[in-house]
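Predict the holo structure. Ligand: iron/sulfur cluster.
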Amino acid sequence: MTETNKKEVIICRCEDVSEVEIKQAIEEGFTTINAIKKRLRTGMGLCQGRTCQKLVARIIAQETGKSMEEILLPTTRPPVRPIIMGAFEGEDQ
Amino acid sequence: MNKVELAVIGAGPAGLAAAIEAAQLGVKVVVFDENAQPGGQLFKQIHKFFGSREHRAGTRGFRIGQELLAQTEELGVKVNLGSTVFGLDKRNLWVLKEGKTEVYQADAVIVAAGASENALAFPGSTLPGVMTAGAAQTFINLHRVLPGKKVLMVGSGNVGLIVSYQLMQAGAEVVGLVEAAPSIGGYGVHAAKIKRAGVPLFLGHTIAEAIGEHQVESAVLTKLNESFQPIPGSEITLEVDTICIAVGLTPMMELARMAGAELKYVPKLGGHVPVNNDNMETSITGMFVAGDVCGVEEASSAMEEGRLAGVTAAEYLKHIAGKAAADRKALIREQLSAIRNGTFGNKEHLKDKVKEENTLGLRFSGTPSKDELDSCPGVPSEGRLAKGPVAVIECVQEIPCNPCEQVCPKGAIKVGKPITSLPQLTENACNGCASCVTACPGLAIVTVDRTYDENKALVTFPYEYLPLPETGATVHAVNRQGERICYGQVVKVRNNKKADGTVAISLAVPEEYAMEVRSMAKGGTK
Ligand SMILES: Cc1cc2nc3c(=O)[nH]c(=O)nc-3n(C[C@H](O)[C@H](O)[C@H](O)COP(=O)(O)OP(=O)(O)OC[C@H]3O[C@@H](n4cnc5c(N)ncnc54)[C@H](O)[C@@H]3O)c2cc1C
Ligand code: SF4
Ligand code: SF4
Ligand code: FES
């Protein structure tokens, strides 16, 4: 294991995405929370980004110089909470 | 489709207060909360709250929760627990309960969803043993399990300070408290409590790394320079098994946003919050907000906002109108501004620059400085101290709090208005009865009797650790920094029911230490 590997910082723990991967994605041009989400699945895990969204935003801010205000607020769609698949059908039965 | 008149999302202090207020005005209210227990953050709060008597100051948080619940029951408010609201448009709520989706149509909605804890990422931050302070608090206060024996706390806001204290009460050792800013974020009296317990404060530091094979075994701290960059070579390693993260909260505005409410980014309030006016109305007609969801504050303000939203919703639903509504709202607003008056924004301290001359004092050391004490209106004069027992009120920071004033049978303490004023002692009216010692939620008051004995003084201080010392025992007396400075003999242990667990311990100590001894070492029998 190299030194950098050892010091790996996990940003999205649900989807196991590291800071290095996010910085790479930003360099490749994925500079919004949504773009990074599509590229790396950050924020698509069990917690629905509750843990990692602000952390991802901070990295984007650092790397691009954009403000946190501008970076936060990608469009979220229901569900706001992790819910069991199939629950949506509950109403019809 | 279920129809409800008013739906309240969140059964924390804000949601419950809103439900109670609206129900009192005749509104039919249904409350939803995803937890199995109502009360939101309140049920984890075993400490006594600040605030005024109207805000039940000096009452432990969970008791406030119990009172609110009893009221909702009396009023026939339906509280749906285990019910996650996962969708919201103007009037419809999609609720997940026991794996089934239910849809509710409400005439009005109050969103009181609270806030979620911020995370921190560093090498090793995914190791077992790293957790949020709120999670640690749930362990100790709800499940009565210690998350670890040696804890490092990251963050010095009120949450970090309070949870550190509670971890020590539960029997853990807090090995250190780390704060990136050069000063303490939370209330000084909370910091003073953990300082008296001897917890080292690492201000201007951050956590660089958590180390461990399968779980946390140690933590590496690093010092930060003025632009918050780590200073190489400044690393300190602490042996810990638990790292608690208390680095702020973010309002859970997702539902409001999904419904289309206009948002505004206010860093001081924790992030994006639904825009609202002083009626707690959002940009959507019939949708109101209250509590941490529209800006992270405190339980006392959350409850007032809740009440305000409750009245506005009742007005919108035509249960109250005109002057009656306006008067009711004006009264609540008055209370709200009273508690907000001196509330120093939690993030203000980030602006403090590390300068030699202002590294003294409560905000920087967790201990009031000599200057602060000398100019404090609660500290009696030398002359008064020489005459016999008297209260020494070491409350030097303007916080919204006044139980000391309320409890004194002699009327010797005055806080007055605004409620953030420092308590003032009328020294000749005080007889040293020590009622205020256990009433102060900040544990900032002691009584000192310099006439106790020829060469001994009697210091009576509040104590909230177990086991309690025996009368007659010799213990280690500690100063404001938690240093063991001399021995003291326990003369009296007063465990008054009214003080709800805060015990007054009287220690006879050598006369020269009368103004230094402020507590005893935890379990510190000789
Ligand atoms: C450690 C700590 C110490 C504190 N000490 C003090 C103190 O000394 N004095 C003081 O005044 N304040 C204190 N506070 C702050 C106070 O607890 C909070 O400000 C207050 O609880 C906010 O109230 P709220 O009702 O807005 O939110 P919360 O208490 O967080 O309640 C929100 C509720 O909404 C529910 N909810 C959220 N989303 C959904 C959803 N989608 N569906 C269903 N339910 C949902 C949650 O389960 C929760 O029960 C402290 C807080 C902490 C964490
Ligand atoms: S010691 Fe007693 S008399 Fe003196 S200020 Fe406190 S409560 Fe009042
Ligand atoms: S001394 Fe009075 S105002 Fe200060 S913390 Fe104690 S009770 Fe509150
Ligand atoms: S931490 Fe990224 S989705 Fe949970």
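The first strand of chain B starts at residue 2 and ends at 9. Residues 343-358 of chain B have pLDDT under 50 and may be disordered.
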